[in-house]
Amino acid sequence: MTQEDLSQKARDVMDQLWGDRGERVLMPAERLAPEFFDLASASCFGAFWSRDGLDMRSRSLCTVAQLAALGRSNELKIHLRGALNLGISQGELLEVLMQTSQYAGIPAAVAALNAAAEVLEVPDDA
Predict the structure, then answer these.
(1) Taking CA 109 as the corner, what is the angle to CA 94 and CA 40, rounded to the nearest 5 degrees?
(2) How far apart are the C-alpha atoms of 12 and 6, rounded to whole Å?
(3) Helices 106-117, 56-70: crossing angle, 10 deg rounding
(4) Phi, psi of 52 (to 5 degrees)
(5) How many domains does the chain have?
(6) Does residue 22 carry a pLDDT above 60?
(7) Are residues 58 and 36 in the same domain?
(8) What's the half-sphere exposure (Cβ side, CA atoms, 13 Å) at 15?
(9) Is residue 32 pLDDT above 70, yes or no?
């Protein structure tokens, strides 16, 4: 498979997660090193997310859990939005983030829930 094939697969996966990315603002790191982000996207989304072994929903839930466990709040918020776009419910995402507390620790879960509060709907009575 060529780099161009992987890049196209990556665009297809990212379109499923985040829709039209034409309107998004580039991160400073993307403006600084666009080639890095092209290569990373081709590898991550083109080579791994597009594999047959798991469906997109399962990969999304795994990614949310891993980012929460690693304390990667910025990336977590991006992937929470993608999970919602795939039809994963807010309740399911909260369960994944709470489950994080048992394997990555309560501070990791609290940080993940704080990040999620910026993306998910917080009840008015909370």
Answers:
(1) 85
(2) 10
(3) 120
(4) -80, -15
(5) 2
(6) no
(7) no
(8) 8
(9) yes
Structural domain including 86 reads 54-126
**The amino acid at 75:** E
What does the mean pLDDT of the chain come to? 92
Q: Per residue in 97-122, pLDDT tens?
A: 999 999 999 999 999 999 999 999 88
Which residue's structure tokens are 């994080």? 100
Residue 16 is encoded by which pair of tokens?
């499923």
Rounded-to-integer distance, Cα 60 and Cα 84, Å: 10
pLDDT tens for 35-62 read 999 999 999 999 999 999 999 999 999 9
Tokens representing residue 8 in the block? 């196209």
Tell me: do 19 and 58 sit in the same domain: no
Report the 10 Å Cβ neighbour count for 99. Answer: 14
CA angle 16, 12, 85 (to 5 degrees): 5
Question: Which amino acid is located at 83 in the chain?
Answer: A
Position 24 scores a pLDDT of: 59
pTM above 0.70, yes or no: yes
